[in-house]
Amino acid sequence: MSLALEATNMSFTAAELEDIKKKEEEVLCRALRDFNIPKIVLDDLEIFLGLIGDLFPGVDVPRLVNEDLEATIKRVTVESGLQAEDSFILKVVQLEELLEVRHSVFILGDAGVGKTQCWKMLAKTYQDMGRKILHPVINPKAVTTKELYGYIMPATREWKDGLFSNTMRTLSNIANTEPKWIVLDGDVDTIWIESLNTVMDDNKMLTLASNERVPLHPHMRLLFEVGQLTHASPATVSRAGILFINQTDVGWSAYVQSWIRRR
User: Fold this and answer.
1) Cα–Cα distance between 220 and 172 in angstroms, integer?
2) CA triplet 84, 30, 90: central angle to 5 degrees?
3) Cα distance between residue 59 and residue 68, in whole Å
4) How are beta strands 213-215 and 205-207 bridged, if at all?
5) How far apart are CA 142 and CA 144, in angstroms?
6) Greatest distance between any 2 Cα atoms in the chain
7) What is the mean pLDDT of residues 194-198?
8) Could you count the other beta carbons within 10 Å of the beta carbon of residue 123?
9) With contact defined as beta carbons under 8 Å apart, do 232 and 242 qualify?
10) Which of 25, 64, 97, 132 could disulfide-pair with 178, CB 3.0 to 4.6 Å?
11) What angle, rounded to 10 degrees, do the helices at 24-36 and 42-55 form?
């Protein structure tokens, strides 16, 4: 029996073995806190932490830290000419944690808060770790819905492929299981986002007007880089994870320091 347990333990990391020894309320407290903090506005953070404190009085569990990953992110960030501030590194780590459990993620925040650099630094981190990641970027507002998903030409009844459908099919047909992200950088509205509901839910399937079904494989992700979700329905928002980047997470000082370094 002890040999079987020892063999089982060998498949866990040191951090995971430490979690097994924790009490149930400690694991639940950290899960609720670390999963919800990335999507909470800074003004509401104190209220949320107060609620967590009321639910779990006397429980103080530190955040699970992957030191090797964070060290790689910091090094890659500095090599890219950016400032490796702790708040920015934390957002990159939170994005990585969200992508582990959700296949669709909204990166939400105002212009200039570092949304693009957040996912780019994580992609470069994966590349530095030897993972061949693909992340084509599409602006869904630059084309019509037909040009995005494809349509049947009325005159000839021929299928005209769309930008998103072609990209997703191409990535889906690649045999390897390396990370593949489709980055949709543009405002969200009901005109184009509703067609992705079947991709964002548990079906993970894009159904085209030609009756073709393109699967979203487990190693594929949808990343939405948006400024606000005013025009997104609750059904759409509930299907994805959210990473909210506050204006203070990067701030103006990092831009100034990076500009000075380039001078």
Assistant:
1) 8
2) 10
3) 27
4) antiparallel
5) 7
6) 72
7) 87
8) 19
9) no
10) 132
11) 170
**pLDDT value at position 8?**
43
Q: What is the 3-state secondary structure (H, E, C) of the chain?
A: CHHHHHHHHCCCCHHHHHHHHCCHHHHHHHHHHHHHHHHCCHHHHHHHHHHHHHHCCCCCCCCCCCHHHHHHHHHHHHHCCCCCCHHHHHHHHHHHHHHHHCCEEEEECCCCCCHHHHHHHHHHHHHHCCCCCECCEECCCCCCHHHHHCEECCCCCCEECCHHHHHHHHHHHCCCCCCEEEEEECCCCHHHHHHHHHHHCCCCEEECCCCCEEECCCCEEEEEEECCCCCCCHHHHCCCEEEECCCCCCHHHHHHHHHHHHC
Amino acid found at 59:
V
Residue 76 pLDDT class (50, 70, 90 cuts)? very high
Mean pLDDT of 161-175: 93
**CA angle at 74 for the pair 72 and 78, rounded to the nearest 5°:** 115
Higher-confidence residue: 220 or 42? 220
CA 11 to chain centre: 26
- Residue ranges and CATH numbers for the domains of the chain are 2-55 (no CATH), 67-262 (3.40.50.300)
